Amino acid sequence: MVIIPKRAYLTKGCGISGTSELNAFDNALLAAKVGNSSLVKCTSILPPDVEIAHEMREVISGEILPSIYAKSCRYNEGDEEIEVIAGLGVAITDEMGLVAEIESEKDEVFDDVERRLKALLEEMASSRGLEIREMRLELSRCVVPPKKYGCALVVVALDV
């Protein structure tokens, strides 16, 4: 059986927790409107004619949802807010769609994450001898209060 997604939903969320990184991730999933599904992580290739929607459809509780996602989770040990950033980029070519995932390094700023994400997509296309027709970058920025866990998340959920 060949499964080819016809639509992809690009969504993001930020989650904060005083309990654990797992709870911060769960809260980010809920904020991205995919928290009541079971995500199945896929690698980063899409069919060339996939429709990309920017609003997540309603998810059925317990639904198995193929997805490509980036998450950046961190505990803030300090006394001042910190920022965590996750990003996904989608490059559309005539032959396929390419997706790159990235998470911020400690103290990395938004523009640097965006620049690295673009470079990842350009190399993915170049390695395949492909020309990028269109590129979409989506980043999730999460401000984490002191002594809390935070998680930034970006998801491409696939409708199959």
Question: Can you walk me through this structure?
Answer:
With 160 residues, the chain is α+β, with helices and mostly antiparallel strands. The chain has one domain: Pyruvoyl-Dependent Histidine Decarboxylase, Chain B (3-Layer(bba) Sandwich). It is 18% helix and 45% strand. It is built from 2 helices and 9 strands. The chain has helices at 21-31, 110-127; strands at 7-17, 38-41, 45-46, 51-53, 64-75, 82-92, 97-103, 134-144, 149-159. A 5-stranded mixed sheet has the order 2-5-9-1-4. Strands 3-7-6-8 form a 4-stranded antiparallel sheet, with helices on one face. The longest helix is centred in the C-terminal third of the chain and has 18 residues, at 110-127. The termini are close together. 39% of the residues are buried.
